[in-house]
Request: fold
Amino acid sequence: MDLSPRAQERLARIGALTDAEQRRLRHDKEIESLLAPFFTGTASAEDLWQQVKALSESTGTEVIRDAQEKIAATFRLQMADEDLQSRKSAILALETLKPSGKYSALELLLGSIISLRQRYNDVKKQAMEQVRAQVEEQVRAAAEQARRQGMVMDTASTVESTLKANPEWRDFITRHDAAAQKTLNDYLARIRAML
Reply:
């Protein structure tokens, strides 16, 4: 491959990877290749456990922690229940491979994440219903006034567009998401510290 002189110069400045960097890259690729089927749903937590166990026997136990960290890094408040549960199961299953694991503490923290997500969704849904009721009443009044003037108004799409444009709703969602994300990040930091 022919590189421009500038690209060649940049490449020379960067330099070649050290042996440690090459080992780390290979290690990361091995873990990612193990995790890919799990994340796509073609491998279960048990399948992952077996593969990580085999790899840890040949390369060392740090692979267990690294796999758990990569799984934990994928937690999101907007995840589907099945994805959240499968990740929880995988982290806990991999913890059993460690000679001095912290299974109970991890299980408690992972349970807290699931509870946080449920509260996050419940509060969001409840707030949405309250704001929707207010907006529907406003739109209904506007539609009635439009009807009296001989005009027709699409109330369903008007409610949705008004709801999404509502500054109070957007402000609430921004604050709610930020608070829940902060709590999630705190839980994940505690999990990473335990791994």
